[in-house]
Amino acid sequence: MTNDKKLLSVNNLSVTFGTGDNPFTAVDRISYDVDAGEVLGIVGESGSGKSVSSLALMGLIDFPGKVRADSLTFEHTNLIGLSENARRKITGDEIAMIFQDPMTSLNPSFTVGNQIMEAIEVHQGGSKKERRAKAIDLLQQVGIPAPESRIDSYPHQLSGGMSQRVMIAMAIACDPKLLIADEPTTALDVTIQAQIIELLLKLQREKNMGLILITHDLALVAEAADRVVVMYAGQIVETGPANEIFKAPRHPYTQALMNSLPESAEGHDRLKALPGVVPGALDRPQGCLLNPRCPYATDRCRVEEPGYYGPEGRQSKCFYPLDDNGRPTQ
Amino acid sequence: MLYFILRRIGMVIPTFIGVSLFAFALIHLIPGDPVTVMGGERGMTATERAELEAMLGLDKPIWVQYFQYIGNVLQGDLGTSYVSREPVMSEFLTLFPATIELTVCAAIFASVVGLTLGILAAVRRGGLLDHTVMTISLTGYSMPIFWWGLLLMLLFSVNLGWTPVSGRMDVIYWIDEVTGFMLIDTLLSDEEGAFTAAVQHLILPSIVLGTIPMAVIARMTRSSMLEVLGEDYIRTARAKGLSKRRIIVKHALRNALIPVITVMGLQVGLLLSGAILTETIFAWPGIGKWLVESISRRDYPVVQGGLLLIATIIILVNLLVDLMYGVVNPRVRHSK
């Protein structure tokens, strides 16, 4: 992989909450890269730190949350250590984000046009007339019918799908190089979900944006992402190209996630679910964080934390990565 | 929006009828009657008494009295004071500007200080400023008005001599009454220093009267702001790279103000009732003092009329608040 394609490079990012002797680590030393024009899927169940890590990228973690990283390099600029003002110039301009629930993510007191134009005003300026024309054009791009009149609508007059389109229009208003989509379809109807994803991918291709797609929908990631990062309890447990990960997961957790898909339970009465839940703040096990739930755990897993094994770009955090047949190696 | 306004105005009518009934009933329920008071210590004969009652219309059944009264009110006639023989309406109109002036100044003090403190406390949540503001507001809310008024008077008027002790104006100035509002009339007159004197007279009563509403508004603004600052759309605004100031002033405040405006409207009622105490402490020649004196004289028409007028003002203010609601909150405006 050559360096000049690299858009974002996350190096040992941690986010902790709370002060005192025992702060809760929501994101634990994660590292990954995003190339220009690439779709990176981040998957994991609730509480695995997917959203928190992306909020940290945007600089949106507030006290008592604490963000640490060796570096967060975006286009040769290390975001860590930038002043608040300098950081804000990049946020919303070159890195933009859309959120899970579009209905609550738009300000109910202002028209959608006002909210889109605001993003343009802050980063690009221009006359009010120009900004309005641009906002109408953006609404057109995200597939909102009759944008000339819709621009003066208030959020409560729009459906969930329409609101998410507006959110997308707002996010791409300044032609960002990186778009973070945090569960963009979770709050929407199933029929709308596909349309929104299609729209996101279309815009991503047209504008050659890097796209980080955060989701717990494996099928979606398999379809949309070039590369995948699997997170568990704040850590990255596996990374690799999407097709390889789905063909032959190396980490027992990824395997368990895929086994829990309804498709893999065909012919069985019950879904194969991983027993237990993600460990919370106070019950983090020693050693590998998955060991209480892992069917293959050994004594070593219960004491020692595994490092990353495997070739560059296809790594898993397991002492005994699974082979192509889904059996642990010794 | 027009439909919203019309519907809201329509709701005023039943409220008004209820209030008139209530004001009428209340004054007849309290013990004592005006005729006895008029007789004074010497008392009067039964014939005199009957004559007087007939003259005042008090001999008729109470419901007849009510309908006669309402009929007159609808024609703009609130009756004549038993004591001064002046029409209630004209007495009211003479005294009302003084109360308005005091109430408006108190409301401005309460809103400006309350909103500022509330916003600052919310933005600096958990900090020293937040704790200070909350302590001030709790103290302000718990303080009895008359005691607070006397304390301030003692400190600023008696010990420091910064402000006059009481009244609306110094006797050395002769101010022609044009609008009835001292601040405006002094500006119109050619008396030098009169305006400054009028302001000085207003400061303490306004602060005293505005303290409780200020405390309420500060607390309400703070909690409303805190709630709004945790909303998803604030995160969206931050993700757009907006400055902190813009997020607070534009995105948060606009939404946080909705409940605060309601509270402000309710405080107007409190201001008018608080004015009764404040006016008494500072010898402020307004409605409050007039009403208190009329109650002790059993001056039925004045008390009834005064209550009715004050209630009407409160109803109108609340109507105004509701209409403002529609301006601030698009969801109200569009609902049918």
UniProtKB/TrEMBL annotation, chain A:
Q: Where is this region: Disordered?
A: 309-330
Q: How does it sit in the membrane?
A: Peripheral membrane protein
Q: What's this protein's name?
A: ABC-type dipeptide transporter
Q: Where is the ABC transporter domain?
A: 8-258
What enzyme category does the UniProt record give? Answer: translocase
Q: Write the Enzyme Commission number(s) for this entry.
A: 7.4.2.9
Question: What processes does the entry annotate via GO biological process terms?
Answer: peptide transport; transmembrane transport
Q: Where in the cell is it found?
A: Cell inner membrane
Listed PANTHER family: DIPEPTIDE TRANSPORT ATP-BINDING PROTEIN DPPD, OLIGOPEPTIDE TRANSPORT ATP-BINDING PROTEIN APPD
Organism of origin: Saccharospirillum salsuginis
What family is this? Belongs to the ABC transporter superfamily.
Is the keyword ATP-binding assigned to this protein? Answer: yes
SUPFAM superfamilies associated with the record: P-loop containing nucleoside triphosphate hydrolases
What cellular component terms from Gene Ontology apply here?
Answer: plasma membrane
Q: Which GO MF terms are attached to this record?
A: ATP binding; ATP hydrolysis activity
Q: Which SMART domains match?
A: AAA (SM00382)
Arranged from A to Z, the UniProt key words for this protein are:
ATP-binding, Cell membrane, Membrane, Nucleotide-binding, Transport
- Xref: InterPro entries: AAA+_ATPase, ABC_Ni/Peptide_Import, ABC_transporter-like_ATP-bd, ABC_transporter-like_CS, Oligopep_ABC_C, P-loop_NTPase
- Catalytic reaction annotation: a dipeptide(out) + ATP + H2O = a dipeptide(in) + ADP + phosphate + H(+)
TrEMBL record, chain B:
Q: Name one GO cellular component term.
A: plasma membrane
Q: What topology does the record note for this protein and the membrane?
A: Multi-pass membrane protein
Protein species of origin: Saccharospirillum salsuginis
One GO MF term: dipeptide transmembrane transporter activity
Q: What is this protein called?
A: Peptide ABC transporter permease
TM region positions: 12-30, 95-123, 144-162, 198-218, 256-287, 307-328
Q: Does the keyword Transport apply?
A: yes
One Pfam annotation reads BPD_transp_1_N
